[in-house]
Design goal:
The structure is a homodimer of 340-residue chains.
Chain A (H helix, E strand, L loop, with lengths): L1 H5 L5 H8 L3 H9 L6 H14 L5 H8 L4 E6 L5 H16 L3 E6 L4 H13 L4 E4 L7 H10 L2 E5 L9 E5 L1 H14 L5 E5 L5 H16 L9 E3 L4 H13 L6 E5 L1 H14 L8 E5 L13 E4 L2 H18 L4 E4 L2 E3 L9
Parallel strand pairs in A: 1-2, 1-3, 3-4, 4-5, 5-11, 6-7, 6-8, 8-9, 9-10
Antiparallel strand pairs in A: 10-12
Helix pairs in contact in A: 2-3, 2-4, 6-13, 7-8, 9-10, 11-12
Chain B binds a DNA duplex (30 and 30 nucleotides) through α3 and α5.
Chain lengths: 340, 340
DNA sequence: CAAAATTCCAGAATCGGTTCCATTATGAGT
DNA sequence: ACTCATAATGGAACCGATTCTGGAATTTTG
């Protein structure tokens, strides 16, 4: 009685002593090994429940080589889209007995590299990541030396075969651009991150295709593909919209970019849906209370999160790697009118 | 050469062999123990760098008893305020060699309880948590049996002394309410979560105080304190604003509540700042591009995150527990006008 | 009823480190 | 030169589990 009250940490040893059996027998009972008699099972279970024994996951990890931890590396969890992905992913992992270690790379390739190193040293079973820059030479090394399962989020690394959840931005952006072109726009600004990631390249494909359809080239001077952060979008939206000639329509890729751009437009005094046509790529849950309503290309973040977890679990269980494409959908609202 | 290329995992043993010294010596060099000669240090370091040895954190954890992992349990990471807290916290922990395991309790007391159990079994060094319900009997047990450092976010648990980062909601809500009362409002609706958490109780104190100042009691029928989720806020805002008599002003506590309430108002067709005065408790980063602009009570999420990490590190280092109060600030904008 | 097969369990090795202890080599003190 | 303190090192125990091996007890078989 008094022992149970005061003992700091109950180990398998304590259980073995209490039940009067060997360590190995306790282990067998706990893991459901067949070589266990009914009497043995009963004795051990009695001891386990009265002592309140809970196996130590650290010790199990060391011995088994599996930590049941999945790393999750993204640019910034405070981006609502990533937050939704992370949440859905974590729930799904939790359900299968895995925990998630979260790290923000902060759009910094060195931070990301360190994150991978820590994941490696922590011996995580896998990493789900949205890389800062697919092309950086350090990335390939990080992924290989990680020595764990990998699922990429909207990324492709040349020369390495990994599972990935990709988004069909192409379709949504194509439709959005076509929508603008059909309305009469040809001077369309585009503010988003660098082409060193799949996301931007895939979006640009859709953008170019829509122009190609009418036999036109895009005007490079209306492009600002330098960063996903709000600050970059703010500055370049400001520049674009105060230059001559200025775009009559604007697309922004990523929620932070959209935020930065909308701030710039507000400061300049341009009203979306009136003074210019505006389309956001990636929708954010609270967009629906915006006024005027924002036209956007939607993708389901929850599905992305849940599917990335599934793919991870599948690799861990059966080694099967695959790519999954998530569809996007353009919805025209008030903001993509006007501007002409 | 060929060994280095093919070997799967390099252990301290490999290093010891390569350097021709004992395991314990390698360990001493790695940990910076003083009992190491210059020659020894050089030999070991040579071996370490040519083999690319990295100590295994699992093994270190098992032996040392410290995992250098901090658990982070919140209702929902997709709440932007929590996301900002988590991000700042993670950065600060990372900087000091700690990693963060993230878990969403999903506003569910049982999920939260399981989360604590897993944290315990993973032997995390500490947990930073925003509890679902301070009063639930299981919570106290969870916290005690966790056997780790604890920092609570905006929570107080009776009978347990823990560190905590608290917010002075009182002041901000008091000012906001006074602002509405001064404008002539007496029928003020309040939609937020349950009083089983410090956050709501502290907010209600400010709310009541402002009424007390003018010798009035609050009207309980305008209160809806049942949940922080958007759905609850949507339903109860709808109810409140379509009943007779209806409030002329509305306050919502928490970003999800604000979202749900704004959706309901939009659906009903009531314009904030005109048809009713509106104040949001908790501001989120993208508020600034809203139109009309929302009056709100602000608290700095980044500071909360960074400070919670600091407090955690301090407990771990020196065992010092303390409470910290974060101030709030009410800013009147367009939305809190009108309604009369 | 003896031999063979089965069932069940204890003991030891192992995962990859850290740390205590004993031992040897070195230098200082007288 | 001899003792004593000090510095540096190797060896072994240990953290808390899992799993392999071998043997005892029990059951099946000829």
């Amino acid at each position: 009685m008094s022992e149970e009250t005061f003992t700091g940490k109950i180990t398998i040893r304590d259980v073995a002593v209490r039940a009067g059996v060997a360590l190995s027998s306790v282990s067998r009972v706990m893991s459901g090994h067949p070589d266990v008699s009914l009497a043995m099972r009963a004795r051990v279970e009695e001891a386990v429940s009265t002592l309140g024994y809970e196996p130590d996951l650290i010790a199990q990890s060391l011995r088994s080589g599996s930590t049941r931890i999945i790393g999750f590396i993204i640019r910034d969890i405070s981006n609502p889209l990533y937050a939704l992905v992370a949440r859905a992913c974590e729930q799904e992992l939790q359900r299968h007995g895995y925990s998630m270690i979260l790290m923000n790379s902060d759009a910094n390739i060195e931070t990301e590299s360190k994150n991978f190193q820590i994941m490696r040293r922590r011996r995580v079973d896998g990493v789900i990541a949205s890389l800062v820059d697919e092309g950086d030479p350090s990335v390939k090394k990080s992924l290989i030396s990680l020595n764990a399962a990998i699922v990429l989020l909207d990324r492709e690394v040349k020369g390495i075969h990994t599972s990935a959840v990709l988004t069909n931005h192409y379709q949504g952006v194509y439709e959005a651009t076509k929508h603008l072109i059909d309305a009469g726009h040809t001077k369309i600004g585009f503010v988003t991150g660098d082409e060193n990631v799949y996301t931007t390249r895939n979006r640009m494909r859709g953008f170019k295709q829509a122009f190609g359809d009418i036999g036109k080239e895009i005007d490079e001077s209306f492009l600002a593909l330098g960063g996903f952060d709000a600050e970059y979008a703010f500055v370049h939206t400001h520049n674009l919209m105060t230059s001559q000639p200025r775009p009559t329509a604007l697309m922004t890729g990523g929620i932070s970019s959209t935020w930065g751009a909308l701030r710039a437009l507000k400061e300049i005094g341009l009203k979306v849906g009136e003074d210019l046509a505006f389309v956001a790529l990636d929708e954010w849950p609270l967009f629906d209370i915006f006024s005027p309503e924002i036209s956007c290309v939607y993708r389901d973040a929850r599905t992305i999160g849940a599917e990335s977890a599934h793919m991870m679990l599948q690799i861990l269980k059966s080694g099967v790697q695959k790519k999954l494409i998530i569809e996007t959908k353009f919805t025209a609202r008030f903001s993509s009118g006007g501007g002409l």
